[in-house]
Amino acid sequence: MTVGAFQDERIDPWNDLNPAGEPRGEAPSPTLNVRKLADLAADVDSRGPRRWLIRGVWPAGDYGVHGAEPKAGKTWNAADLAVSVASGTPWLGALPVDSAGPVILFAGEGGDGNVVRRLRAIAEARGLIADDLDIWVCTRAPHLSDATHLAALGDQVTAIRPQLVILDPLYLAARGANGADLYAMGALLERPQHICQTAGAALLVVTHFNRSRDTKGAARFTGAGPAEWGRVLIAATILTRHTDRATKTTTVLVELDITGGEIPDQTLRLRRTITADDPDNLDSPLTYAVDLPDADDLTPAVPTGSDLPPAALKLLEAVTGADDPATIGQLVDRIKARHGHGLRRPTCSTNLNLLYDRGLVDRIDLGPGKGNLWLRPTPKTANT
């Protein structure tokens, strides 16, 4: 079997017109089924205990959105989840997957070779063979306004019965839609939601951040709709990025803000390292490593040569290298003892605020005119 209904030569599903040259029209709406609460409750109870897809993060069969700024690794995270669900191994090497099974991946960016290369690298890091996994791939994004595409999507979900469907990226799937219209985007996203819910499959939609840096988390998802629609929202922000000049190994430290209706808000830090066996060969296998480092383990993620200024790196080293909170003066003393020179107070203030904005250090406000104490960041959780 192949997810080839999207490539039927008799009807071009990538054309939004039917063979007569007319718009294909709307997909049929689900039936409105009104039931007495007792009947609904009995139906829910008969299904048994609810399960997790990703334990503590994503309920099985639920739908949500993963958004990020450019090159923050959202497609890598989605591919990692595809391998994790198909193999029953932890997502990002750390978060248990409780509901393993087939995965359908719609990958609209990158092309065939890119998708295969990434999935093989992730599987290899888990000691798996990607080609043996129950992952079904279409390297086009379905157009959610096209009834033919939705019918093909429904056919494949019905045939494969996946635990997870990944749609990457939303801007291609929502082509022609007004991204600023909350109601239109809600109607668009509801269509694949119902298809997946009917089959008991989780749905992950991958989207991009807007250009505003005045907000954080899911508030940065591009356009209206995704943040309001998703039951689970995962927003990824780059903290640091570094490429080794000799090996071309890239290490990225990313912060994941996770929110949802039935889960506690969580903030996790993700470190991903990727290198090619031969950087000059596009067919060369990739080596992939990912972990969720503790606050105590942040320093290796931001080696000299990252995009942080040298003063910021020295201050980060001074803050994370000790257990106790410190004033600027104490941090300058630590830097002087290690490097033989200090830093000017304005330089310290500017770079400590940069580190704070990126989530690499935390601070305690001592009150008006008294300054701050600077310390290692601590994981943030809050019950909804």
What is the total number of structural domains? 2
Number of H- or I-type helical stretches: 10
Q: Helical proportion? A: 25-40%
Q: Nearest-angstrom radius of gyration?
A: 23 Å
Structure description:
The two termini are 43 Å apart. The strands form three sheets. Strands 3, 4, 5, 6, 7, 8, 9, 10, 11 and 14 form a ten-stranded mixed β-sheet that branches. Strands 1-2 form a two-stranded antiparallel sheet. A two-stranded antiparallel ribbon has the order 12-13. The chain has helices spanning 37-46, 74-87, 111-125, 147-160, 170-173, 182-198, 226-229, 310-320, 328-339, 345-357; strands at residues 52-54, 58-59, 63-68, 103-107, 135-138, 164-168, 202-208, 232-243, 250-260, 265-276, 286-291, 362-365, 372-375, 381-382. The protein is of the alpha/beta class and 384 residues long. Helix 8 (310-320) packs across helix 9 (328-339). The protein is globular and about 70 Å long. The longest helix is centred in the middle third of the chain and has 17 residues, at 182-198. It folds into two domains: 49-293, Rossmann fold (3-Layer(aba) Sandwich); 300-382, Winged helix-like DNA-binding domain superfamily/Winged helix DNA-binding domain (Arc Repressor Mutant, subunit A).
